[in-house]
Amino acid sequence: MNPAVPAHEPVEDEDRWRLGLRGLTVTRIEVDAQLRLSLGRDWAVVLEGPARLGPVAGPSVRVNPATWGVGVGVGAGAALPLFGAKVLSAVAFKSGSLRLVFDTPLMLTCAPDPEREAWQIAGPRGSLFAARPGGGLDVRPGSQ
Fold first, then answer.
1. Residues 21, 27: contact at Cβ < 8 Å?
2. Is the pLDDT of residue 72 over 60?
3. Which of 26, 39, 50, 99 has the most CB atoms within 10 Å of its CB?
4. Strand partners, 102
5. 64 within 8 A of 72, measured Cβ to Cβ
6. What is the pLDDT of residues 57-69, one digit of tens each?
7. Tens digits of per-residue pLDDT, 77-121?
8. Beta-carbon neighbour count of residue 122 at 10 Å?
9. 48 touches 37 (CB < 8 A)
């Protein structure tokens, strides 16, 4: 870790942003037409498009924020095991994909959607990372 960069500050690499969320805990999960994970007091992950959730080294299930689903892994209810989990890694790829790894050890991934913003992450001081419709990444690192 670079000591010049505060622990929860995003860092840009050539093909991705390391979001600086390591150690933050999922303190709240909200579901309506979106799936929202609150991380600590200052950060929120909002999924509007389908995502995948599963063990880091194993099969994943589809998480669709638009539905609770009847079976496990169909709707947003599949994300409930993330409550209380700590973030180990949070990466927003410049292609528009998102990867969050938790200590449970579950991994949540979300690809860009061709027609809408599939996900966004908002943080303190106006920080915002969002998948563009069709791919790519919108970035507003926030004021220092």
1. no
2. no
3. 39
4. 87
5. no
6. 888 888 887 765 5
7. 788 899 999 999 999 999 999 999 999 999 999 999 999 999 999
8. 17
9. no
User: Which structure tokens are listed for 68?
Assistant: 């609770």
Q: Give the span between the Cα atoms of 120 and 103, in whole angstroms.
A: 21
Instruction: Return the ∠ at Cα 61 (arms to 134 and 24), rounded to 5°.
Output: 80
Grouping H, G, I as helix, E, B as strand and the rest as coil, residue 78 is: helix
Tokens of 130: 């969002």
Token pair listed for 124? 């303190």
Paired with 75 in beta bridges are 64
- Which tokens go with 110? 């979300």
Cis amide leading into 105 (omega within 30): yes
C-alpha distances out from residue 77 to 14, 35, 53, 81, 136, Å? 35, 9, 11, 9, 28
Instruction: Tell me the torsion sign for CA atoms 24, 39, 61, 91.
Output: negative
